[in-house]
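Let us work through a complete example step by step.
Step 1: write down the sequence.
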Amino acid sequence: MLACAELVVVAREGRSVVTTLRAQSPLALVPRRGVTAASRSDAVVHLVGSASTPLAGDDVTLTVTVGAGAHLTLTGVAAAVALPGGRSADRAARPSRTVLRCSVGDGGSLTYLPEPTVVTGRAHHETVLDVVLAPTAALRARDLLVAGRTGERPGRCRGTVRVTECSAAGNGPAPGRPLLVQTQEIGDPLLDASPAHLAGHRVLGTEVLVGPAREQVPATCGDGWSLSPLPGRGALATAVAHDAVTAARRLAEAVRAAS
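Step 2: predict the structure and record it as tokens.
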């Protein structure tokens, strides 16, 4: 299944307003409305799976634009379960793929907090998070990968994160310097058992934190988590655990250490 979605948020009169909201199955974008939404200065949009996804062969792309001075919180409502293909040999041979491309203008911010992704047996899933930040834009992006269901050997998952800071030049943004380029994989038994990777744990969590100011964050670590500074500004938190709840708690500890 091929699907594309688009989300645009701009700043208007002190509030962040969704101006473009387009999605195709298996992805639905549901903005928060009502009194709760009116009391917040940021726009809140929920990612909702409208069909069984990601399934082998699925290719879903979401493009997000956060304008200057606007703030967006993009959250999930349920865990994503990466599944193997059906009976079609061609479909089963192609991995599922989820791509999120974002740009955040000056003074704007993006908070991306999806629910965990469970990589089931025989699944093959790929994710890409590509974010371009203006010099004073901020980003918080979390990812929790669960290697298989309880008692199940996991499939394969490869996730790539690229965060780039760009500056305005001429009629558009000029190519800037990368703040983070990282690819992680789970599902390889030897790699997952390595002390340098999962060390036998089932859950790998990461959280990218890039603030609007150029503040250096010292490297530090704790029980099952670490915090590494990014060049220029920001930090990367990493945590491992045997379950998603513990991994999320450890990531929260790392985030507190960065503040």
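Step 3: interpret the result. Helices lie at 34-38, 89-93, 189-193, 244-258.
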